[in-house]
Amino acid sequence: MPLLEVAALRKRFGGVVALDGAGFTIDGPGIVGLIGPNGAGKTTLFDIVCGRQSADSGTIRFENRRIDGLPPHRLARLGFARSFQECRTLNEETCLDNLLFAAQDKRLGHGLRGIVAPPAQPRDAARALLATAGLERFANTPAGDLSFGQRRLVEILSTLMAAPRVLLLDEPASGVNPTLLATLAAVLREAAPRLGLLLLVIEHNMAFVMGLAARIVVMHQGAILADGTPADIRADRRVIDAYLG
């Protein structure tokens, strides 16, 4: 049974066709890159998978359960998480508290004691995650005092604290220097098998995504242009002509 099935998604914004029958199937956990030129429909597809927008037609199934049309909070309960192109951290809170906040059950009235004094186990897990990214020395530093690349790492570590089953990252490499990119790639490579995580990554940094993902899906004009290994995609004349050039 496939883990995630996206089938024939269509979406219009007035006269603009954002998605034109886009679809793919992913059998299990792993890292999949989603690439294509600006305007190809990548972020719209992410928004629909995460429940931020609805498709005009098409279906999405997670473990054979139809999930298209579910609101974001219900998808979050199923294990879906998402980052955005802009970095979103709680800048006045410490890096440790950013991760602890992400780990909390957000249901109203649930776990209020944990909000006041998080138990030791999540604290230990948060410190361990910070250590994997070389950020343990910033545990008690406000996130806003860090560089952009470091804050991006804190943001992604926060998503991992919730132990998602499907994590969608929208251009995580944007604005991050090469040294921190290598750290980010190492964190994601370690987390995916440990968490049994399906990681979908929109990215324009070809060196980063081709070195990270085992499979690349290429979008063009709202549809899937190609789907294969990084080597397959680099050699695909249609992809070269439409995007890699």
Q: Summarize the biggest pleated sheet.
A: 6 strands, mixed
What is the C-level CATH assignment of the largest domain? Answer: Alpha Beta
The succession of helices and strands, N to C, reads: EEEHEEHEHHHHEHEHEEHH
Query: Which strand-content bin applies to the residues?
Result: 15-25%
Radius of gyration: 18 Å
Tell me the overall shape: globular
How would you characterize this protein structure?
The strands form two sheets. A six-stranded mixed β-sheet has the order 6-7-8-3-9-10, with helices on both faces. A four-stranded antiparallel β-sheet has the order 2-1-4-5, with helices on one face. Mean pLDDT is 91; it is low at 106-119. 39% of the residues lie in helices and 24% in strands. It starts with a strand and ends with a helix. It has ten helices and ten strands. The longest helix has 18 residues, at 178-195. Strand 9 and strand 10 (223-228) form a beta hairpin.
Give a quick summary of the entry.
The chain has 245 residues and is an alpha/beta fold. The protein has ten helices and ten strands.
Topology overview:
Layout: E1 4-13, E2 16-26, E3 30-35, H1 42-49, E4 57-62, E5 65-66, H2 72-78, E6 80-82, H3 95-103, H4 112-116, H5 120-132, H6 148-161, E7 166-170, H7 178-195, E8 198-202, H8 206-212, E9 215-220, E10 223-228, H9 230-235, H10 237-244
Parallel strand pairs: 3-8, 3-9, 6-7, 7-8
Antiparallel strand pairs: 1-2, 1-4, 4-5, 9-10
Features of the shown structure:
single chain; 245 residues; Rossmann fold; 2 domains; six-stranded mixed β-sheet; 10 strands; globular
